[in-house]
Q: What sequence folds into this?
């Protein structure tokens, strides 16, 4: 029964992190339960990894337990229900500890959190984490709206080809396009709101700064000009990269004013001055500069993919999962969105998606090669279906990475898929979020068959590399688990 499984995972997690009283709050993403831990000395990582249903554990600012898509929602909800709070809420303090004990626990928690942060701190990690916090909450919207937009594109292509006909199909395509536009047409506003939350500013002001970049109220008869080039400003210039920088700068201005403006007039003076200053800076400085940066970045990436062809594709396909391991993949989301905004599609995403396909091929190889390893085969059985759909974390953290060798051979399989796409060239995606088979409806210009060839190449590459080079006797017999 699913309820028994969820209860078992939730209970097992609590038992091995020091109980509910050692957890400050619980939240989740697409595949991971994320917990703020008070005292890391009470966490038994090895036992936590061994809880049935737990696919892996990641230590960061929060303790992240990988349990897989779908299951993660239920487990996180069960955990907060057991604690009597809502998702993301701070757990109630154990009043029996007394104030001195409470202070000691808080001090210990802060010390341990600082140690974990220092342990995992890498160059640029703080900036990358901020980017993740801005875009991760938007991923469900990207996925849902992107796939619906892909359906609209398929219907429109069929209408143009004469395969289908009628006003009903045109209306369906229009509705799908409207839903897709609900996210992507106003993306800068959502990014502005999330960036403000991340940087400690007012979310409403962040949304306004994002909206400013759309130049909605500009007089078309007297357009504003770029002070550097003298050319008319273009709506959306600088994209989400410019919005993130503008809101980051805005956070300093707002905080500075909050400390100095009288409380009686703060609600009037602070937002007015903040928006006026940042509006001027955003329109006349940040938009032109960020626009030049994003144009150069997108142009350079497209040039590399065009010139490098299969070689570039192979390198990117191999390197993506190691980038994920170090958190460096977070910087790619705004780059994908800029490529889509400027060219209509991102050529980078389909190639990077091959990394997950390589994991799928490796999983099939392990299934056939390790018949004696019953535990591994059970893990693959649960993780493989969602891996095919493009959610690779269960396969990565539950199957290939713990075994070592299969992770490397899976990455090489991803390189094969990337090389195929690099050879075919100009295969892009019109949205971000989905991967694997789920990305097929989002492939631009009807080039989905080329993307499928890349997937097959990654499957085959991951299978062959893993079958012949990715196992040893211990893995095959289950002694390496």
A:
């Amino acid at each position: 029964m699913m309820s028994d499984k969820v209860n078992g995972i939730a209970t097992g997690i609590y038992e091995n992190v020091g109980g509910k009283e050692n957890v400050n709050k619980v939240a989740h993403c697409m595949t991971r339960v994320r917990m703020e831990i008070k005292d890391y000395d009470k966490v038994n990582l090895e036992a936590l990894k061994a809880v049935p249903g737990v696919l892996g554990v990641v230590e960061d600012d929060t303790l992240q337990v990988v349990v897989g898509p779908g299951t993660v929602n239920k487990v996180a909800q069960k955990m907060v229900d057991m604690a009597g709070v809502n998702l993301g809420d701070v757990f109630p303090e154990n009043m029996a500890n007394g104030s001195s004990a409470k202070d000691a626990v808080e001090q210990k928690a802060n010390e341990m959190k600082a140690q974990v942060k220092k342990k995992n701190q890498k160059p640029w990690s703080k900036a990358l984490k901020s980017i993740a916090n801005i875009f991760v909450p938007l991923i469900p919207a990207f996925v849902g709206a992107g796939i619906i937009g892909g359906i609209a594109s398929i219907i429109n292509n069929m209408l143009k080809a004469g395969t289908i006909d009628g006003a009903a199909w045109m209306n369906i395509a229009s509705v799908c396009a409207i839903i897709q536009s609900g996210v992507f047409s106003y993306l800068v506003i959502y990014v502005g709101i999330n960036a403000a939350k991340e940087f400690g500013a007012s979310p409403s002001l962040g949304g306004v700064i994002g909206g400013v970049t759309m130049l909605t109220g500009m007089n078309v008869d007297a357009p504003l000009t770029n002070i550097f080039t003298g050319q008319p400003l273009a709506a959306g210039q600088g994209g989400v990269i410019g919005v993130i920088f503008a809101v980051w700068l805005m956070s300093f201005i707002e905080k500075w004013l909050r400390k100095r403006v009288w409380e009686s007039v703060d609600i009037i003076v602070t937002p007015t001055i903040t928006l006026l200053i940042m509006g001027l800076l955003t329109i006349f400085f940040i938009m032109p500069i960020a626009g030049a940066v994003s144009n150069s970045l997108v142009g350079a990436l497209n040039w590399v993919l065009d010139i490098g062809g299969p070689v570039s594709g192979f390198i990117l396909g191999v390197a993506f999962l190691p980038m994920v391991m170090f958190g460096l993949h977070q910087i790619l989301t705004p780059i994908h969105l800029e490529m889509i905004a400027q060219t209509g599609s991102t050529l980078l995403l389909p190639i990077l998606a091959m990394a997950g396909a390589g994991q799928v091929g490796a999983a099939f190889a392990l299934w056939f090669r390790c018949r004696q390893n019953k535990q591994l085969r059970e893990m693959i059985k649960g993780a493989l279906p969602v891996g095919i759909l493009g959610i690779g974390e269960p396969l990565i953290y539950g199957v290939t990475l713990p075994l070592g060798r299969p992770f490397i051979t899976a990455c090489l399989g991803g390189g094969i898929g990337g090389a195929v796409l690099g050879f075919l060239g100009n295969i892009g995606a019109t949205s971000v979020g989905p991967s694997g088979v789920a990305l097929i409806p989002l492939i631009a210009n009807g080039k989905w068959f080329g993307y499928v060839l890349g997937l097959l190449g990654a499957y085959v590459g991951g299978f062959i590399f893993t079958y012949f080079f990715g196992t040893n006797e211990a893995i095959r017999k289950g002694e390496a688990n």
